[in-house]
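One thing: mind reviewing this one?
=====
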Amino acid sequence: MTMPLVHAQHGRCQAERCDRTPCFRIEVHDPPGTLIDGKTANACADHLGATVRDLSRWAATATLIEGYIQVCVIDGRPGSADSLPEGTLLPASWPFANIPLI
């Protein structure tokens, strides 16, 4: 199985006022396999559901053909990406869920 690539972790969960290390990468795809630019987020476990909900709401207003939201578990261990340049891509641990957009 090919592992998706995600940006190296530099910082924190993208939810407002959250300083936790993100452990999930949420992406909107349409058509299947095509990542929609700017529609990705990194979230901690506490903000995973809200982030998926927010991206689903956005997708409901967009014209998507066969879209889905993919959730990947990422390696968010402190220090694992600190020395890498911003934007570096790393393999995700594994795809966790694919949620079809209906």
The longest helix spans residues 48-61. The chain has a mean pLDDT of 80.
